[in-house]
Amino acid sequence: MFKKILIANRGEIACRVIKTAQKLGIATVAVYSDADREALHVKMADEAVHIGPAPSNQSYIVIQKIIDAIRQTGADAVHPGYGFLSENPNFAEALKGEGVAFIGPPPVAIEAMGDKITSKKIAASAGVNTVPGHMGLIEDAEEAVKIANSIGYPVMIKASAGGGGKGMRIAWNDAEAREGFQSSRNEAKSSFGDDRIFIEKFVTQPRHIEIQVLGDQHGNLVYLGERECSIQRRNQKVIEEAPSPFLDAATRKAMGEQAVALGKAVGYFSAGTVEFIVDGNRNFYFLEMNTRLQVEHPVTELITGIDLVEEMIRVAAGEKLRFTQADVKLNGWAVESRLYAEDPYRNFLPSIGRLTRYRPPVEGKRDDGTIVRNDTGVFEGGEISMYYDPMIAKLCTWAPDRLTAVEAMGRALDDFEVEGIGHNLPFLSAVMVQERFRSGALTTAYIAEEFPDGFAGVAPSESDARKLAAVAALINQSVQRRGTQISGSLANHQRPVGADWVVTLAGFTLPLHVRDGADGMMVEFDDGTTLAVSSDWLPGHPHANFAVDGTSIGVKVSRSGTGWRLRWRGMDVVTHVRSPRVAQLARLMPVKLPPDTSKMLLCPMPGVVTSILVKQGDTVEAGQSLATVEAMKMENVLRAERKGTVKRVAATAGESLAVDELIMEFE
Fold first, then answer.
1. What would the 3-class secondary structure string for 13-31 be?
2. pLDDT tens digit string along 587-606?
3. What does pTM read for this prediction?
4. Which member of 176, 228, 288, 301 is catalytic?
5. Which residues form the Lipoyl-binding domain (predicted)?
C-alpha cells in the first residue's frame, strides 16, 4: 500500500480523498494556488505545497508544477480528483515516468474515452448504443451550421475534451449553431486547452442516467448500479439520485453490461462512469465515459456501502477487487443536492464573497433511520473565489425508499445555514416539494420546464402562510415578553403583552389571537382554526426548529427592519406582527419603489468582461449580444432586452467588474 498520496486538486473532492486516505493510514499532500492558501483541503492534509497563481492554467493544470510538488514531498501516488488533470493522459504518462502511481485508469483508456469522438467510435464497435452525430472535427461556424442541418435540429454542440457542462450548447436553428459553436470553442480552450468541437443529435425529452463501473488491473470489471442525473441547468447537474426512479431491472442490467463491455474494450480499471441518454421508452444511447471519480459518487456509495475512493487506491496499488458482480446489492435510496455559489434570484449567476455563516446539518444516522452526509471543501469565514467552480458542498441523504430520502433532504436543506453569498439552497428546497420531482417524472429539461421564467422563490400556500404566521407570532411573543423582563423598570409600570395581533406576509393578512398552551403557544385565527406552536428559539438565533401542529419544521430567522425574515422550504418571506391598531395604520404607508435601471446594462455577476460587442451610437435589437462576461470558468453572453440605441459604453474588455456595476447605458 502507498505511504503518501498527493491530491492534485482542491475543494471538496480534495477533502474527500484526504478522509479516505486518513482512514487507511496514508499520509496526504495538498497542493494550493494563491487563492487557496487558507483553504480547507490545505488545513486537512499532512503537507501542503504552493503551486502558483490563482488561475488554474497557471497552477492546478500545470503538469510540471504537480511533478515538482511530488519530487519535493516524496509522494508515491497521486489522486487527481475530478476536473483539472484528472482526464489528461499526458499527466498519467508523466507520473508513470516519475515512477509514481496514478490513482485512476491507464493512460490509453483516458485518451480513448477522453476524446468524445474517438470514444463514440469505440463504443459503437463494442456493441454499445450510440447517438447519431458528426464524429469528425469541425473547423468553423459555417461548417457547424451545415453539419447541424444535415443531422437535423435540435443538435448538441460539444467540446471534444469537455466535461462538467463546459463547452456545451444546444442549438435549435442556424443562428444558435453559429453562436453556440464559437462559445463552446472559447470555453473549451480556456477550460481544457483544447478547442476541438463536434456535433450530435439532441434527444428530446431525455433522461441523463449513468452507470458506475469499477475494475482492477487483473481483468475484473463490475458495474455498481446507476445514478439519475437528469435535473441539470446549463448542462450541469444539480440534483442526483441512486437508483433511478425510471429504470427497471432489465434496462439496468442491459446498461450495466454495455458499460462493462465498453470498459473492457479499452482495458479499463479503477472507477469510471459511462453516461447514457435514455428516452421515454427506455431506449438508451452512449453519451460519454468519464475516466475518473464522478462528482456525484456519494449516492452510489450510500446505496452500495462501497467506498469508491478506497477501491481506487487499492486498485492503483495492484490489489484485486474484493467482490464480484453477484456481490453488488443496491440498498435503499440516496439523493444528492449540489450547493452552488449561484444566486437563483438572479438567474443563477455566480456569487462570490466570504461565508459569514456556514453551518451544515449534522452528519450521520438520524433517529428515524435516515442518513445525512455532507461533502464540502469550505468553512465559515472562508472565501468563495471567482477562479474556480462555484460548488460549495454536496448534501446527501439516504433512506430505505425514495420519498423518505426526499423528505430527509428537504429537512436537511432547511437546516443548512449559509450566509454572506448568493446560493441555491432555496431552489433546491423548492424542487424537493414539487409533485413532479416527487413522482420521478424527470428529464434534462426539468428546470427549464418547471421554472421557465427563472426562480423567484416559492410563494406560500394559505396553509404554509398560516404555519409561518404561527412561527412569527411565537417569535413576537418571545421578544415582547423578554422586553418586559428588563431589570431596573419602575414598579407598577410593567408593559403588558397583548394577545391580539395581525400578521402580514407574502400578500396574506392574518389576524390572530395567542394564548399559552400545554406545550407552548396556541394561535387562533379569525376563522376559528387553531395551531399549536412551540420552539426553543431565542432572540439572536438564526435558525431553530418549530413544532407547528405536531410537525417539526426548520426555519431560518433574522431581523428585517421592523419585521422578521423567515426562510423555509424555498419560501423567503418578511413577516410583520403588529397590534390591530398599528396594522391599520401600516396599510396607509406609501410603498417605496426601486430605482429605474431599465436603460442600463449592469454586470449581473462579479467577473471579467471578455468582450464588448457594440459601441456608442449603435442601434441594437432585442436579443442582440452586447457583451460577454466570464466568471467561474463560464462565459456568459449579455443580450439586449429591447430595441434601443447605445448612449455610452462604460466598461472595457479585460476589466473586472463587481455585481451591478455599469457596463453600458441606452438612450
1. HHHHHHHHHHHCCCEEEEE
2. 999 988 888 898 999 998 88
3. 0.84
4. 288
5. 588-667
